[in-house]
Amino acid sequence: MKAKIFFITLAVEDLGRSLAFYRDGLGWPTEGIVGQEFHDEVTGADGTIVIFTLDGGLLLTLYERANLAKDASLPPGPPSSTEFSLGIPAGSREEVDQLLAQARAAGATLTAPAHMRPFGVYSGYFADPDGHLFEIAWNPGQSGQ
Amino acid sequence: MKAKIFFITLAVEDLGRSLAFYRDGLGWPTEGIVGQEFHDEVTGADGTIVIFTLDGGLLLTLYERANLAKDASLPPGPPSSTEFSLGIPAGSREEVDQLLAQARAAGATLTAPAHMRPFGVYSGYFADPDGHLFEIAWNPGQSGQ
């Protein structure tokens, strides 16, 4: 199996709230809510979705939790923040702190102050409006992220 | 904030089990379990982790749920399959079915047979040993994924 992931779908409770957080708060590029015309007769899922095209072509999509559950033919599970995290690169220690502050201003929750990890990465986490975890990280040993 | 995600961390219950699933079952490249020497005195998290380097440089890391929770300064939440899904590309309808069968043979659960979605993508989901969702998808309108 090709070792490739080309999209990340986040389950959200309120598509408009999450669109505002990522587009207006973080400044990420999107055409907004699309796919309203699609309904899957097999699963019952609606196609309404928000797609962000990230650097490198990776897609981040926002999809209502009830639709993701239908799309995957599973019952909706409880919200849980410790299933995964997504890493956002920063170019310096100061930028980590700045970006965390930007996320908080946009409506994120900071779980703790950023700090230097024992493996040499300075990072801190924020939780988006649905509790999904992001880690903003600066690795002094790498550049060009 | 730069619109970039450079790693995806999955919370897992058993690092060895998940390593076997992704490395031996799916065939994804990794150096195995690393970082055992690191312990974060601030959070109590151990650094023990598995890192897969995917096409395009995106990193997929496996991290014990208890460590992710400590690392993010949150209490561990319940497992929940409908928080997110990750998309794996396929080159044809047949390949979608073949890759889902490969995942099942490796220990994944298929939630339903693949089918053609109303927006023109043929896809099906599998859940990894921790219930994390992946969607294997073929989009006839695109190539080179």
The CATH architecture of the largest domain in chain A comes to Roll
Biggest interface pair, residues each? A-B, 69 and 69 residues
| CATH class category of the largest domain in chain A | Alpha Beta
Q: Summarize the main sheet of chain A.
A: 5 strands, mixed
- Percentage of residues in strands of chain A: 25-35%
Let me know the number of strands of chain A.
Answer: 9
Whole-number count of domains of chain A: 2
CATH topology of the largest domain in chain A: 2,3-Dihydroxybiphenyl 1,2-Dioxygenase, domain 1
Oligomer: homodimer
Poorly predicted regions of chain A: none
Rg of chain A: 16 Å
Search tags:
homodimer; 145 residues; alpha+beta; 2,3-Dihydroxybiphenyl 1,2-Dioxygenase, domain 1; 2 domains; five-stranded mixed sheet; 3 helices
Describe this structure in words.
The structure is a homodimer of 145-residue chains. In chain A, 22% of the residues lie in helices and 30% in strands. By secondary structure, chain A is α+β, with helices and mostly antiparallel strands. The first copy, chain A, has two domains: 7-71, 2,3-Dihydroxybiphenyl 1,2-Dioxygenase, domain 1 (Roll), CATH 3.10.180.10; 85-138, 2,3-Dihydroxybiphenyl 1,2-Dioxygenase, domain 1. In chain A, a hairpin with a 5-residue loop joins strand 3 (49-53) and strand 4. The longest helix of chain A has 14 residues, at 93-106. The mean pLDDT of chain A is 96. Chains A and B meet through strand 1, helix 2, strand 5 and helix 3 of A and strand 1, helix 2, strand 5 and helix 3 of B.
